[in-house]
Design a protein that fits this description.
Layout lengths: L2 H12 L11 E4 L8 E7 L2 H9 L4 E6 L12 H12 L3 E4 L2 H5 L5 H8 L3 E9 L2 E9 L2 E5 L8 H6 L4 E4 L4 H9 L4 E3 L2 H4 L1 H15 L2 E4 L3
Parallel strand pairs: 2-3, 2-10, 3-4, 7-8, 8-9
Antiparallel strand pairs: 1-4, 5-6, 6-7
Helix pairs in contact: 2-3, 5-9
């Protein structure tokens, strides 16, 4: 299948264009051959995940955390150089989807976590850069807020929304103290661990919808 067709399918599913993101979402490293027969998925575009995708004979690596943020790549040095060199030398394309993969109701990190822990009556919540990326839900009479990654800053908003507990990946020490000061129980389940959900759900949906060979790259 053509690379462009795959990327358009992902963009349409995740509604990438509507997000104001710190990540430059979409294709970040191109490849010469446009035909893709196998797609690898990982949380991060690390040198390790790129090497494992190449070993698995993937043509495209899709990640949550890419290598191009804000103003893009200004210098090809250090770790970024190593990732780009490895990918280009093996003709591996790399695409990243950050906030769109946090927020998506079908395959996003936060809705997937909410469903995994049995939350009901799901409602979007937690605004980041003007994008609603998290979710609240109810289980056994308790209201739970969920926002994956490093979202400890939302403990106060979770309290205002009437949550009994807030789940995220990690938080700064200041966020921890703030949560304690307002008596907002906060579960820090791991940045990487909370962002496995969306990548894996996107992989399953691609396998089902596009009939492509896929593989998940463990950290």
């Amino acid at each position: 299948m053509k690379l462009e067709k795959i990327l358009k399918w992902v963009d349409d599913l995740l509604e990438t264009s509507r997000f104001d993101d710190v990540s430059n979402n979409g294709l970040q490293i191109d490849r010469e051959d446009r035909e893709v027969t196998k797609v690898a998925f990982a949380v991060d575009a690390s040198l390790e995940s790129v090497k494992k995708a190449i070993e698995a004979k993937a043509d495209l690596l899709i990640v949550h955390h890419g290598i191009s943020w804000g103003g893009g790549i200004r210098t090809l040095t250090g770790g970024v150089f190593n990732v780009v060199k490895e990918a280009i030398s093996s003709n591996l394309a790399v695409a990243a989807y950050h906030l769109p993969l946090d927020a998506n109701k079908k395959v996003g990190n936060n809705y997937e976590i909410a469903r995994a822990i049995g939350l009901k009556s799901l409602e979007p919540a937690f605004s980041y850069h003007g994008n609603i990326i998290g979710v609240t839900g109810v289980k056994d009479g308790y209201k739970v807020g969920v926002c994956s990654g490093g979202a400890g800053e939302f403990a106060g908003e979770a309290k205002r929304l009437g949550c009994d507990v807030f789940i995220t990946g990690e938080a700064s020490w200041g966020n921890v103290i703030e949560a304690q000061n307002i008596s907002m129980p906060m579960i820090l389940a791991g940045h990487y661990e909370t962002e496995l959900y969306g990548v894996q759900a996107l992989m399953r949906e691609m396998t089902r919808s596009l009939k492509l060979k896929t593989i998940f790259i463990e950290r």
